[in-house]
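Human: We require from you a standard protein entry with sequence in single-letter code and fold as C-alpha cells, and nothing else.

Assistant:
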Amino acid sequence: MGDDFSDATKRVLASRVGTLCSNPFCRALTSGPQDDPKKAVNIGVAAHITAAPPGGPRYDPDLLPEKRSATANGIWLCQNCAKLIDNDVVRFSAELLKAWKTTAEADAKGRVGRTSQSTGNRPFPVAKYAKIRITPVVPREHEQSQFMLMEEHDEYLELQKLDSQRYVTIPKSFIENVHQFGDSAPALLRLSGRLRWVSTKRDLELFADRPPSGPAGIYGIPKDVDSRYAARLSIACKYAREDRLPEVLSQGWLVFYDLDGTYLRWAGQVLIVDWV
C-alpha cells in the first residue's frame, strides 16, 4: 500500500471518524495513552481506497495523481483491517470502502457533543431470543421478515434472520431507538442508517444513508449508470422499465443491488436479476 498521504491528511482522516476504525464490524479505538505520560500510542492507518502505485489494490488508472493522495481517496482503519482490505480486494471493493467511510463519518458526526449515542453501552431493552423487526430495510417488499436477538455485546447485537440462516451484526451506534409493543409483539428497532441487500454478496449489509420515505424509496437509493455497466458486472441480468417493476418482480425477478447499496438505473430502466 503506497503511503503518499501527508501528515495533515492523515490527521483529518483520523479526526473525521473520531480515531475509530471505519470497518463497521470492528470500530476499534486506534489511539490512546502509553504508560509514559508524555507519549501516546497509535495503531491507526490512513489506507488508500484506490492504490497510489500502479498494480496496487483497487488501483484506478483514471484517477489523477493529486486525487490519489487526497482525503477523498483515504479511509481510516486499524492496522488489522488495513491489511485485510488489501489482501482481499474482491471482497473489499472501492465501493464498499467508500460506504464504510461514509457510515463511519456519519456516526462520528452524530456523536459529537453528545454524552451518549443511541443505546450506547446501556443494556439492550429486548431479551435474548426475542423477535425484532428492523427499519429501514431495503428492498421493502422482500426483506421485511423478522429477526431474533441471538447475542448482545458491549458494542453490537447479533441477530438471526428468521426466514433464513443469515446472521446480521448491528453496531449499537446504528440504533436510533427501540419500540416495544407488549410481550407477544416483536420490538421495532429503528436504525440511523439502513440495512440493505447486496446482490453479489447475497447478504445484508449496513449503510449510513436512508432511502426516501414513501413510494420514492420503495427500492432504496438509485444510481444512474451507463449502458455498458450491466455487461461489466459479468452476471446474468437485464433491464426492466421502472414503471413495470411491480409486474416484473411478481414474476420472480429481483432488483439488483450494487456493492454500495444502490439499485442501478439506465434510461428509465432498472437492472434486475433472477437469483438471490
About this structure: Residues 131-207 form one domain. DSSP finds six helices and 16 strands in the chain. Residues 116-121 have pLDDT under 50 and may be disordered. Residues 47 and 75 are 5 Å apart (CA to CA).
